[in-house]
Structures are given as structure tokens and as C-alpha cells.
Amino acid sequence: MPPQRHELHVVHANIVLYSMAHWMCVPIIPFLSKRLGADPVMFGYLQTAAGLAQLIGGPLLGWLVDVRGARSALIVSQLAGALSYLCLALAWTVPMLFLSKIPTIFQHALQAAQMCVTLMSDVDNRPKMIAHLSLYYGVGFVVGPAVGGGLANLLGESGQQTVALIAAAISFVCVWVNLTYLPPLYAHEFSAKSEAGKGSPDEGQVDSAGEGDHKAAAGPASGAVKERAFADMFTMILRPGLRNLLLFSLMVGLALSSYYTGIALAAEPQFGMSEKGLGTLMSFVGGLSMIVNAVGIPFLSTYFPRQTIVYFSMALMAVSLSSLSLATDTVRLYLLLIPLVVSMAIFRAYSVSLISAAVPTEEAGSAISLAHAAQSLSGVVAPAVSGHVFRNLGFSVLCLGQGAAVLVAWLVLHLNASGVLSGAKKSQ
What we know:
0% strand, 20 helices
């Protein structure tokens, strides 16, 4: 069933505002934590706490999608973000900073939006629509840091809390918009309508039923979903196809989390960057990602098969990460980042599509949440390991290790899950 245009507009607006609010606060948190007395080690613990919260909440939100609909998950995510920013604005001690991370357990608006798009699209169009989400997220990624940092500098010492309050207000507006303009988006509804489109006699009888029957079908969940316990979601990991795709996502996530940590650690000692220089680099990456999602993903999806695209992105990512070991100045770093950003954008678009295609539609929310949990786990583990490698072996060795991790991920996908790549389209 094709999505209504206004529904897509609401989802896209959610992602722009969610990303903008988040990235408005990213540049102020290090300065706020320092002003409140946190040293670099304590700030690292704060980031780890955020990663753990994301790891815990991802599966919970996926279960909520399957049981209560994608809109409910999107509302909960935006509300969690608003509460987190509100706590940040009211923080006057370091423990209050940690308290602001508790609501982020449920702050997964991008995951919820991916589920909305998954329900609204078929397998063939799904990578393009997910790429569009990344494009809209990139708008907030480019605009947010500039707005947040600029306002904080303009308003002085109180600017950090003011920026957090503005971010909270943006998130509360998103909650109201979702309640007012977005339908529930239950997975079993879209699954039933997809079956009806195939001409099933039973489904044809359902379509010809009266309005009362339609409203009954549009309840919070079908019988099968109601009976599903939260623990049942984790039994999905035992399915070989999904398990191997999750392992693939985890391995790539470890490499990319290590890359983010390595760039942050090497920015000043190896490339002579200040905070402004690192922020400019982040904006460059965000802008390039937008271009890839707007132009590159649709082009590749039109002219090349799924398996070729995924294998190409993995090869390009492995080579690009390894090549960063050759970066000795800022100019080379920017040039070497171009192919890496391209490969990362392709991976993000297609990994969600592959995982959602590996399970029935009514279980897609749980599957995507498990993929996000795997990436959150990599965000908890990789920074500590990367810091140790960087300190003892250097930036070049760290980059080579990242490339090796991507090669291992490709091997896992090729040996165990290639059937998903080549057969997903046929199964539809």
C-alpha cells in the first residue's frame, strides 16, 4: 500500500526536528559538563551511560512498534527526547547530567521513523525511502550544531541551558504534531493489506466488510501480536538468517564506532584541529551524506541489484577505513573521508532494508530494534577498546583494524546470509 503524502511529510518533519534538537545540544554538552566540574574521564562515563541507555531501550521500542504501532513509538521517542533536554536545561550538578541520560532509553525517533517507512513501502522501494530519512536527518545534522553553538556563544553562560530548553520545546511540538496528524500505523494492518493486494479470497472478504469490521482490524494489535510476550522478540535472534544479519550489523558497527572515536582522539594531536575544525569536519560529513542519500542511493537502487550494492559498499568501506592510516594532514583526511561517507550512507540505507526483509512485516519492528541494539552495543564496547589501541599503537593501526573488522563483517554476510541479499526480492 503506497503511503499517503501527508503521512510521509509528518515522518520527515519528525526526523528533521529530532535531528536538529539532538545536534543543537551535542556541542554544548562538553562545555556544560566542564563548567559543572566534570573532568574528561567523567565526560567519557557520561557518553558510556548514553550508549547503555540506547542499548537497553532499542528492543523495548521495537516491541512497542509491533504491539502499539509505529506512531506510538515515535511519540514516546520524541517525548523522551524532550524530557532529556529539559533535565539538561535544569542541570546544576554532574549527577543531573547523568539523570538527563535516563529518558534517552526511549529516545529512538530515527528507529521509529524507519519502522514507519518500512510499513509504508515495499521491499524494492524501501532502500530509497530509508535513504530519504537519512537525507532529512542530515538536514538537522548540518543545521543543529551551528544553531546550538551559535546561540550558546551569543547568550553567554546561560546560553547552554537556553539551547537545551529550545530543543525540549521542539520535541514537545513534535509530540503534538504526531498525536494530531499521524495515523497509528499498525504492522498487522499493512501486512493484511499487502496480502489482500495479492488476491487472497479470504482477504477479499475482509476488504468488503463494513466500516465496523475495518475499525476492529485497526485496533492496537492482532491476536497474534497481543499474545506475543516481550521475551519472544529475543527468540528471533535464533533464526539463522536474522542472527547472521545482526552479527554483520554488529561487526560493521564496531568498525564505525571505532572510526568516530579515532577521529575524535586524533583531531588535535595528529591533524591540529580545534573544536571549530572538528565541527566543520562533522558538517562536511553530514552534507556529503545528504548528497549521497539524495542522489547516490536512488541511482544505485535503479541500476544495480541489491547484492552488488551491498558488496560494493563493504569493499569501499574496508578500503576507505584502512586508507585513513595514510592521512597525515587535514587535506588528505577530507579527501579520504569522501569514499568512506559514501559507503557509510549505503550501508545505513540497505542494512535496515535487509533486516526488515528477513522477517514477516508484523515482526519488522522487533528486528529493526535488535539491529539498533547491536549498533548501540558496538557504541559501548568500541570506544574503550579504540582508546587503548590509539594510546598504545597509534592512529594508523587503529584504522587498519577498522578495515579488518569490515572485511570480517563482509565474510559473515557472504557465507551465511547471502540468500537474503539475492532472494529478498523474489520472496515478495
